[in-house]
Automatic annotation (TrEMBL):
Residues 13-26 have a biased composition (Pro residues). Belongs to the D-isomer specific 2-hydroxyacid dehydrogenase family. Residues 1-29 are annotated as: Disordered. InterPro entries: D-isomer_2-hydroxyacid_DH, D-isomer_2_OHA_DH_cat_dom, D-isomer_DH_NAD-bd, NAD(P)-bd_dom_sf. SUPFAM superfamilies: Formate/glycerate dehydrogenase catalytic domain-like, NAD(P)-binding Rossmann-fold domains. GO terms for cellular component: cytosol. It comes from the Eukaryota. Pfam families: 2-Hacid_dh, 2-Hacid_dh_C. It comes from Acorus calamus. Keywords: NAD, NADP, Oxidoreductase. One of its GO terms (molecular function) is NAD binding. This is Glyoxylate/hydroxypyruvate reductase HPR3. Residues 122-292 form the D-isomer specific 2-hydroxyacid dehydrogenase NAD-binding domain.
Length: 332
């Protein structure tokens, strides 16, 4: 590692796991603006151990993905840490309470992924309702040509006119709502408080929202309060033909209860691209044709990474210049 360009501009990117996409073009330009300390894989050397031997007092900022926790031990091991910039939309990997206590500011990905996640969520919903992937598997398996016209393939359901309940109406939830309005869906939502200027029906109680919805789309942040927010009570409130779509975080849904309700026919189907213990997926979900299990990375096309990279750089530059962050997080 060469000489520090400016000690106060030292930043600390945490390595993504091997299954994450490659960094965007131009990542090397980070080293033109900041001195970069690149720790090894956490499986080789624990991050706190690595930091303790690499001048922890010189580190002013962390640049991280959503896969490695920025917890209290890491934060407290860096006495001069002032900023954490994450490239993820979620924040459950960052100890926000410790950041608040230490006066560390946090920046997130903002709305970089919102449009793409919304497109994907609507596509996933259409897939579940119209049984598109199931039809593909049916044809590939050769069942179409068996016994005359083939084995019975259950028909799907239309999207138009469906009552859709959104659990969370942030950037992503709002974009999903816009798209579903174009399909003639009736939109309702739940959030911590009513959104000013929003015409959709507001339900302060999720159980009431579920009981009045054909589709429940989970798009809220994962916190201690929202963990397993979709539980037995909520699933029971949904009808037998209802659909659950989760594009938030896996732990927002109680997977055991979800699997049980699907097996018992208490709900009609589910579309999931996040799971509580990724990459482990409950085996029961694989046994059902009305459950669609996808990769979270399918949400993101290649081009948004350039925008995300530029935003991350801009947040770091703002921090080191003593300016407000572009996409700040409230740590309260």
């Amino acid at each position: 590692m060469g000489e520090a360009k400016e000690e106060e501009r030292t930043t600390y990117p945490l390595p993504p796991p091997t299954h994450t996409p490659p960094p965007p073009p131009g990542t090397d330009s980070l080293s033109l603006k900041f001195q970069i300390l690149k720790p090894p894989s956490p499986t080789t050397t624990p991050i706190p151990q690595f930091l303790s031997t690499h001048h922890p007092s010189s580190i002013r900022a962390i640049l991280c993905s959503g896969y490695i926790p920025i917890d209290a031990p890491i934060i407290t091991s860096l006495p001069n840490l002032g900023c954490v910039v994450t490239t993820s939309a979620g924040l459950n990997h960052i100890d926000l309470a410790e950041c608040r206590r230490r006066g560390v500011v946090v920046a997130k990905a903002g709305g970089v992924f919102s449009v793409d996640v919304a497109d994907y969520a609507v596509g996933l919903l259409i897939d579940v309702l119209r049984r598109i992937s199931a039809g593909d598997r049916y044809v590939r398996s050769g069942r179409w040509g068996r016994k005359g016209r083939g084995e019975y393939f259950p028909l799907g359901s239309k999207l138009r006119g469906k009552k859709v309940g959104l659990v969370g109406l942030g950037n992503i939830g709002s974009e999903i709502a816009k798209r579903l309005e174009a399909f003639g869906c009736i939109i309702s939502y739940n959030s911590r408080r009513r959104k000013p200027g929003v015409s959709y029906s507001y339900y302060p109680n999720i159980c009431d929202l579920a009981s009045d919805s054909d589709v429940l789309v989970v798009a809220c942040p994962l916190t201690d309060e929202t963990r397993h927010i979709i539980n037995e009570d909520i699933l029971s409130a949904l009808g037998k033909d209802s659909i659950v779509i989760n594009i938030g975080r896996g732990a927002l849904v109680d997977e055991k209860e979800l699997a049980w309700c699907l097996i018992q026919g208490e709900i009609g189907g589910a579309g999931l691209d996040v799971f509580e213990n990724e990459p482990s997926v409950p085996k029961e979900l694989f046994l059902m044709e009305n459950v669609y299990c996808l990769l979270i990375m399918q949400i993101i096309p290649q081009n948004p990474f350039e925008d995300l990279f530029d935003l991350s750089i801009a947040n770091l530059e703002a921090f080191f210049a003593g300016q407000p962050l572009l996409t700040p997080v409230k740590c309260d």
